[in-house]
Design brief:
mainly alpha; 0% strand; single chain
Length: 108
């Protein structure tokens, strides 16, 4: 793959880095693992999310299940949500001026 092709994935890499940094910050604040914070965060999503837990060891399963005992504050949730926000970019929303111009010549 050329480097030009790979450049299109950079925004996703930056977004992923923001999310990991936010999860790490909340992990440090709560004294919980990254996995526990991530799984607890999913419980607060407006749309139900059912994670698939891929623990290979009993200790990993126990760590994941401990996420049920973690309550995240409104501030922590806000920071996690902001870090995971998808930036729509230029031209993602139609401009009202363009819509008015398009409809000005239309006759019924």
């Amino acid at each position: 793959m050329s480097s030009d092709t790979m450049k299109q994935f950079l925004p996703e890499q930056k977004r992923a880095a923001r999310i990991v940094a936010a999860v790490k910050t909340v992990s440090d604040e709560t004294g919980r693992s990254l996995a526990q914070v991530a799984l607890a965060w999913l419980r607060y999503r407006p749309v139900p999310v059912i994670p698939i837990i891929g623990a290979r060891k009993l200790s990993q399963l126990q760590d994941n299940l401990a996420s049920f005992d973690l309550t995240l504050s409104a501030d922590q949730l806000k920071r996690l949500d902001e870090a995971s926000r998808i930036e729509l970019g230029f031209g993602s929303m139609p401009r009202l001026v363009d819509l008015r111009e398009a409809n000005s010549g239309a006759r019924c």
